[in-house]
Amino acid sequence: MVRNKEDFSFSTCWNIKKHRNGRAMLEEIMELGFRNVELNYNVTREHLTTIEPMIENGAIGISSVHHAFPYIDDTDFDTDSPMLGYEDEDKRRRALDLLKQSVEYAVRYGAKAVVVHPGEVPFPDNIDARLKDIYKNQGRNSEAYATLWTTMLEQRQSQAPQNLERIHRSLEEISDFIEQKGYKVAIGIETRARCYQIPTLREAEWLTGRLKGSPVGLWYDIGHAMMMERMGLYENLRDLKELELPLAGVHIHETIGLSDHWCPYVHSGLDDFDVFLDMIHKAPVRVYELKSACLPEEIEQSHNQIMNKLLVLEGQAK
């Protein structure tokens, strides 16, 4: 039975840019009615000096941390990097060490999962940004979009296999680390917001299928998945129906056009988000990941709509 906000978490993505003090940041989230948070990858060690006492005294619960955690000022290992799929072995090992660090923090804080951006197919420039610009100005059906998309897709399909092999090796190693330590924490590989990034849903099935019995599962970011479907990378409902995907958690937000992190239903004014309710219902960890433009009253309205729809879904399942 889905209950109220106690069954949901809220990401510090929403307000981290306005707070240097971690306690103030979490207290603002608690004012929304949430008692569990996801600490995102911009949380610094300075933030943690005031967050950790709140965790220790039970004022706040940590559902998940977002790798790399805490924040690291290094573009080689930021959230839009090859990360676990580096061809350079020294960099891949460094990325793996950082993931071990994220896992250690998650376990220390009692989190259920670590959200991971596993990697990407490297391009010499940000071809995703160029595609999105054409999408917005000329449309997905334009000749310019089709031409550039074909270029992107051919390179992605050509190079993804070797990147997936390296990512698999890294995930296998982190799984062994977790098992050896006796930790109870999931590794959630997240659906991404750029078309050259890994994984697609089928790539996620390939990875998790080779790691059956491990703590690795899919972290289904709904807004990102909406964006990738609109760009043409995959079809969510078809793939989710056809594939076997162990679910580690979800990020709840909506994409309007190609702009993500909006409040579901409220900002779009549409019921298209209904198709993702089953994923939210099944997810072991449910995290709202919203942008700062989302106002408290909009967050409340969106959550209430999701709750009402989930209750109807539960009633139909009985």
Structural class: alpha/beta
Q: Strand fraction band?
A: 15-25%
Runs in which pLDDT lies below 50 for 5 or more consecutive residues are none
Instruction: Tell me the number of helical segments per DSSP (H or I, 4 or more residues long).
Output: 10
Oligomer: single chain
Adjacency order of strands in the biggest sheet: 1-2-3-4-6-8-9-12
Write the layout of secondary structure elements.
Layout: E1 9-11, H1 22-30, E2 36-39, H2 45-56, E3 61-66, H3 89-108, E4 113-116, E5 119-120, H4 127-137, H5 143-181, E6 186-190, E7 197-198, H6 201-209, E8 216-221, H7 222-231, H8 236-242, E9 247-252, E10 254-256, E11 259-262, H9 277-282, E12 286-288, H10 296-317
Parallel strand pairs: 1-2, 1-12, 2-3, 3-4, 4-6, 6-8, 8-9, 9-12
Antiparallel strand pairs: 5-7, 10-11
Helix pairs in contact: 3-5, 4-5
